[in-house]
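A favour, since you know our structure tokens better than I do. Would you make up a two-line entry for one protein for me to read? Write everything out right here, beneath this request.
=====
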Amino acid sequence: MHPVVDPLVRGVAAFALLIAFSVALPAYAAPHPAGIADGVIVVPGGSFALAPDAPPAPAAFGAAGRYGSFVSDPIAYPEVFDGLQVVYESRIPRGAQMALDVRASADGIRWTPWVVDLASGATAHLDQPARFVQYRVRLLATDETPALRSLRLTPTRSILSFSAFENAPPPIAPTFTVHATRLGLVGRRTANGHRIVKRDRFVALPCVCVLSRRGGSEYMVRITYNGRSVVAPVYDVGPWNTRDNYWDPQEKRYFSDLRQGWPQDHAAFFEGHNNGRAQHGKVRFPTAIDIADGIWWDDFGIKGDRAVVDVTFLWMGRDPLEQPAQPQSPPETPPAPPPADTSAASPPGSASTAPPPAAPPPAAPTPAETSPADAPASDGEQGGNG
């Protein structure tokens, strides 16, 4: 969480390379921030600091010291923009870390991935026009708290026309086959502050750029295993990295030397990438997604703590397994009984059509094998933390 410009910022938009020049739009300052604070004190005037009782840092962020975050409410702008400049003041004592992330949306519902670790003065270039913004402040300290203040967000707009994006249909979300592990860790907190319960249903991915807010569903995946499929939110970060957006095209990846869909920990384990190491150390087994116990045991019935699954990244487009809604015409009115006078003419168009047969009831699902809730943890169970 060092305050430097991440390579994701430089590569987040392909069409941004075509921008000849941009114009600044009215800026937003945060004198009275509104949003969700978790372990963070928000001072009127727009300052953020760790609370004295902030919880321990999640394992994804080192499991040392105290950790807190603030996610702003959506901020609406009157004009469309495709870039966002951030300016702020910060104080980062020894042993502390601070990060500012932003994301954008055209409708306030579907959000871009977070552009993370923005330095003051940096501009995040977006790959589509937007009208809404959210920012996220992440603070970590082993002793004295870091602080962020005087935050100012200035949207920018390129001279390019946005008409090409207005009616473009969303693409099909990509699907990749990766190694997975069972998450476990009941009772611990995830990177978004969620407390893990028995038979929970969420996943961890190795990039903080797609971490949903606590209880949120901004970033969802479809996991398919042995003919069964489940949709779940991304609530944690890991297991081996916190910056590996392996689902993105190669030019947008943090690890830009690896092809799309090939996780860095897989490359480290199978090909010796980075001398066989990931951010959290030497890769002892490949895993690019951690899956909570409710999905692993109850939905999939997987024995053991490791498996190979297909993962579809639903924030990137349409769900390939979602059936399109079929338009339904109103049922035809059956003909009235013939009148007593059989010589009377029937009204035109009154011929009856037999109703379609009722759909058969869905087949009962095969009971999934389950493991005891108190099964001992293994290397796979600790996968969310490398």
In short: Residues 2-22, 341-386 have pLDDT under 50 and may be disordered. The CA atoms of residues 76 and 96 lie 32 Å apart.
